[in-house]
Design a protein that fits this description.
Layout: H1 6-12, H2 14-17, H3 21-38, E1 41-46, E2 54-58, E3 65-70, H4 87-92, E4 95-100, H5 110-127, E5 138-143, H6 145-154, E6 168-174, H7 189-192, H8 196-201, E7 215-220, H9 225-237, E8 246-248, H10 256-259, H11 266-273
Parallel strand pairs: 3-4, 3-5, 5-6, 6-7, 7-8
Antiparallel strand pairs: 1-2, 2-4
């Protein structure tokens, strides 16, 4: 077990901060099951050889582009299927959705999780057309750990991987952790197995973005001070592509993602406007 700093634990342990999170998760899963049962979708397409190397596609009629979504869960829990509910409003707006799964800690490390997401994006760009997924115009979105992973995709050397990412129009990172150093003294590091070197290497604030398209940052206004600071840190580190982080009113770490599924909310609208 890591040596826990009580002050940091109180700032970063979102399940303690939001005691009713099981009710929120149950609602997500219920609404997501309804979407999968009713929306045109292609589920569990393999982008690699591991059981969690899977992608769900949700198909819009005459789509204008694709929204890629990466789920959260501190890189160690939850599943793409928990967030299918996010797909419906985007599909209704004429955008298809690709939801990515990845391997979880402690079976793998955070660097492996980031690599899974890179491979998933490469697969989407190379194979989307064959699965009725438009790949000429793509937006990257993610929540919590997924927000961090979106930032890691922004900082990837895609030229070295011989992947043309000119199709990426921009992104949205919601409630992410972009400086992993504080997690060294939190309980979740029992699964993350970070040390100073790996925390630094996987912290977007210490990396240089290779994508130069806009990255909108958002965080719940009712989240901890530390989480609100995390978005400000990335905005300061990447000022040419990041705006001032949006604080989502009346939203904690988990309910913030609900607003991404509201067509009248600024987060949803920012993603949709990337395709205008």
């Amino acid at each position: 077990m890591p040596t826990i700093n009580p002050a940091l634990e109180a700032e970063y342990n979102n399940r303690v901060l939001v005691p009713d999170h099981p009710t929120i998760f149950a609602r997500w899963r219920r609404e997501s099951a309804n979407v999968r049962a009713s929306a045109p979708c292609t589920l569990d397409l393999a982008y690699g050889d591991q059981p969690r190397h899977k992608i769900d596609l949700f198909h819009a009629a005459n789509p204008r582009g694709t929204v890629v979504f990466i789920h959260g869960g501190y890189w160690r829990t939850l599943d793409k299927s928990d967030f299918s509910f996010l797909a419906k409003p985007f599909v209704d707006a004429g955008l298809s959705v690709a939801a990515i799964n990845y391997r979880l800690c402690p079976t793998v490390r955070i660097s492996d999780v980031a690599e899974d997401c890179r491979q998933a994006l490469i697969w989407i760009i190379a194979n989307g057309d064959a699965h009725n997924l438009p790949v000429e115009r793509i937006a990257l979105t993610g929540h919590s750990a997924g927000g961090h992973l979106v930032a890691m995709l922004y900082a990837t050397d895609w030229q070295q991987r011989q992947c043309d990412v000119s199709c990426i129009l921009g992104g949205l990172a919601l409630s992410g952790v972009y400086d992993l150093a504080p997690l060294l003294a939190c309980s979740m590091n029992a699964d993350l197995l970070l040390d100073r070197e790996t925390a630094h290497a996987n912290s977007p604030i210490h990396l240089v973005p290779t994508l130069t398209v806009p990255l909108h940052l958002a965080v719940g206004a009712a989240e901890s001070r530390a989480f609100r600071t995390q978005s400000r840190l990335l905005s300061a580190a990447w000022p040419t592509i990041c705006d001032t982080p949006e604080e989502v009113e009346n939203a904690n770490h988990f309910t913030a993602v609900d607003f991404l599924a509201q067509p009248t909310h600024s987060m949803f609208q920012r993603v949709v406007r990337l395709f205008d």
